[in-house]
Amino acid sequence: MTEIERHEYDVLVIGAGGAGLRAAIEAAERGLRTAIVCKSLFGKAHTVMAEGGCAAAMGNVNENDSWQVHFRDTMRGGKFLNNWRMAELHAKEAPDRVWELESYGALFDRTEDGRISQRHFGGHTYPRLAHVGDRTGLELLRTMQQRIVALQQDDFAETGDYEARLRVFAECTVTELLKGPGPDPSAGPDGAIAGALGYWRESGRLVVFSAPAVVLATGGIGKSFQVTSNSWEYTGDGHALALRAGADLIDMEFVQFHPTGMVWPPSVKGILVTEGVRGDGGVLKNSEGKRFMFEYVPDVFKGQYADTEDEADRWYDDQEKNRRTPDLLPRDEVARAINTEVKEGRGSPHGGVYLDIASRMPAEEIKRRLPSMYHQFKELADVDITAEPMEVGPTCHYVMGGIQVDPDTGQSRVPGLFAAGECAGGMHGSNRLGGNSLSDLLVFGRRAGLGAADYVVGLESRPTVRAADVDAAAEMTLAPFDPPSDPQDGTGGAGAENPYTLHAELQRMMNDLVGIIRTESEVAEAQRRLGELRARIRQVFVEGYRQYNPGWHLALDLRNMLMVSEAVAASALLRTESRGGHTREDHPGLDAEWRHRVLVTRCADSNEVVPRVVVEPAERVPMREDLLALFEFSELQKYYTPAELAAHPGQPA
Ligand code: FAD
C-alpha cells in the first residue's frame, strides 16, 4: 500500500476556525497532546469573515440585558426548536468567553466610558454584539492564534520544542474518521474513535492521526448552493465524516439564507453585506422607494416591532420608549420579504432590493463604522455606499442543522467523537440570530475541548487504528485517480465525469429546488437528481498527480457535499410546515405538531462511494420548567400544542 505519514495525539481537532481553536486551547491547557488540522491556511477560516460581532448579554450599552433576555431572543429566533440546554449555556456563558478573549489580548471597540461596545442586530432585544468595526471575526481568530502561540512558547520553555504538546497541521484535509474497539470492547469492534486519515494538499501525501478523541469543528455546507456567502472550504466535511462514523445529524432542513448578499456584478454574487449595516441605521427599500419591511411583520412578532418609520427611526436613539425597526426582524423573515418584493416586480435592476445607509448618516460616519463594507462595494462593484444605496438579495449563509451532541460536553453518539461550532446542530433551532455564531463557537468550542480532555483522561485503554481500515480509507481517498472502466472493453477513461461539472450541477440544483422557498414536487425532483449525481460520482476521474491537484480535492469534497445535500433534501421533504430556515410554499404556516419533533439523519450503509442516508422524526426533549416560565403563556400558545402546555403554571384556570 501507499506510504503513509503517522502521528499520535491525545486530542485531534479538525478545523481551525473559532470553534476548533477554542477547543484546542482548552484541551492543551489541560495538558493533553493536541493537534489542529485544517484544510485551509492557518488563520484563513470562515470565522475570519465574520463581520458584525459576537452576541453576549454583558449589558454594557443597555443594562437591562441579561442571560434570560438573550435566552428568550435566541429561542424566539429559532422558533422554539432550539436545544434549550444549549441556548441556556450559551446565554449564560457568552459574556465570560468574551471577557476571556480580552484577557488573551482582543481589542474590542469601546463605549465612551471605556467598556466593550455592543451593537444592535436582528432579533436581539438590546444592543448585544461585541465588535471590532466590521472585522470582528478577524480579531477573534487573531487573538486565539496568539493564545496558541503563547501556549507553544510555554512548551518550548519547558521542553525545548514548540510543538511538544500543540501542533498545527495546515493545508491538510481529513477524508475519513477511523474507529477501534470502544470503551466496552464486549459491545463490538467498532465502538470508539481511534483517529483519522487525511492528505497534505500540497504534496498529496497521506497522513494518519491516531487519537482517542476527535473534535470536529469544520464549519458549514454553503458550497452545495450556487449563491452563497461561504468560501471554498464549506463543503460539509464534518457533517459527512460524522455520519459515516455513525453519529447523527439533526435539523438538516434548516439552512439560513442571509437577506443581504451582494447581487451585482455576477462575479461577486452572494458575498455578504453585514447585518451591521441595518444595525447601525441602514434601511431596506424597494424600487418604489418604499421601506417595505413594515408590511412583513409576522403574527408571532406582532406588537414587538415599530409600526411607523418615525418610531423605527426614534428607536435607534431611544429603545426604552420605542419599538425596533422591522428591518431588524430575524433573518428568515427579512430574506422571505425580499424574495417576495423581487418576485412581485418591485426589485432593483439586478434582482435584489436596495439597502440604503447613504441617506441615513454622514459619509465619514459610514466609513468609520463600516470600513470593510465601504471597500467591498467600492472595489468589487464600483458603488460608493456613502453616496448611493447598495443592491442586495438573499444568499446561502449558515446551516442550523448539524451533528447531534450532548450540550454539556459536545460528545456525539460515537464515543470519542465531539463537535462544536457551525458543524454541530441544535443550538440555533430553525434560525440563527446574527452574532450568535461567534458566541456559540466560543462557548461550545471550550466545552468540546473540555469534554474531549475529560474523555481521554478517563480512558482505561486507547482504541487502536486498524491497518485494514487505513487501507480502505486510503483507497477511497485515492479512488478519483482510477479511470472508470468502460463496460464495453474494460479499458479506462470512457464515461469519466469531471468533478467541476458535477459540482456546478449540484449547486444550481440545490439553489433552485431546495433553496429559500421549497415545494414537495421540487424537493422530490431534487432527490431524483441527487440519485443521478450519486451514480455519476462513481465515474469521477481526475487527471494528473497528487501534488497540489484541486480537481482531486474537489472530487473528495463532492462526496461530502452530496451526502449532506441528501440529508437536507430528505429532511426538507418530511417537514410539512414553514419555520425559520425552511419555507414550504405548499405548507406555509407553523404547525405546532412539528415543533416538538426533530428530524434525525443517519447513515444507512457505508459501502457506497456516497453512503445513503435515512431521515426519521424523533421527539425533542421538553424544556425545563424554570426556563419555560421565562415566557408569557400567550407567547408559548403561538408555538406549543395545548397538550404540551397543560401543565404550564400560566395556564388560565
Ligand atoms: P470555521 O471558522 O469555518 O472553520 C472551519 C475550519 O475547518 C477551517 O479551518 C477549515 O479549513 C476546516 N476544515 C473544513 N473541512 C476540513 C477537513 N475535511 N479537514 C481539515 N480541516 C477542515 N457569525 C456571527 O456570529 N457574527 C457575524 O458577524 C458573522 N458574520 C459572518 C460573515 C460572513 C461573510 C460569514 C460567511 C459568516 C458569518 N458569521 C457570523 C458566521 C460565522 O462566521 C461562522 O458560523 C463561524 O465562524 C463558524 O466557525 P467554525 O469554527 O464553526 O468554522
From TrEMBL:
<feature type="coiled-coil region">
    <location>
        <begin position="516"/>
        <end position="543"/>
    </location>
</feature>
<keyword id="KW-0285">Flavoprotein</keyword>
<protein>
    <submittedName>
        <fullName>Fumarate reductase/succinate dehydrogenase flavoprotein subunit</fullName>
    </submittedName>
</protein>
<dbReference type="InterPro" id="IPR027477">
    <property type="entry name" value="Succ_DH/fumarate_Rdtase_cat_sf"/>
</dbReference>
<dbReference type="InterPro" id="IPR003953">
    <property type="entry name" value="FAD-dep_OxRdtase_2_FAD-bd"/>
</dbReference>
<feature type="region of interest" description="Disordered">
    <location>
        <begin position="478"/>
        <end position="498"/>
    </location>
</feature>
<dbReference type="InterPro" id="IPR036188">
    <property type="entry name" value="FAD/NAD-bd_sf"/>
</dbReference>
<dbReference type="InterPro" id="IPR037099">
    <property type="entry name" value="Fum_R/Succ_DH_flav-like_C_sf"/>
</dbReference>
<keyword id="KW-0560">Oxidoreductase</keyword>
<dbReference type="Pfam" id="PF00890">
    <property type="entry name" value="FAD_binding_2"/>
</dbReference>
<dbReference type="Pfam" id="PF02910">
    <property type="entry name" value="Succ_DH_flav_C"/>
</dbReference>
<feature type="domain" description="FAD-dependent oxidoreductase 2 FAD-binding">
    <location>
        <begin position="10"/>
        <end position="438"/>
    </location>
</feature>
<keyword id="KW-0175">Coiled coil</keyword>
<feature type="domain" description="Fumarate reductase/succinate dehydrogenase flavoprotein-like C-terminal">
    <location>
        <begin position="503"/>
        <end position="608"/>
    </location>
</feature>
<dbReference type="InterPro" id="IPR015939">
    <property type="entry name" value="Fum_Rdtase/Succ_DH_flav-like_C"/>
</dbReference>
<dbReference type="InterPro" id="IPR030664">
    <property type="entry name" value="SdhA/FrdA/AprA"/>
</dbReference>
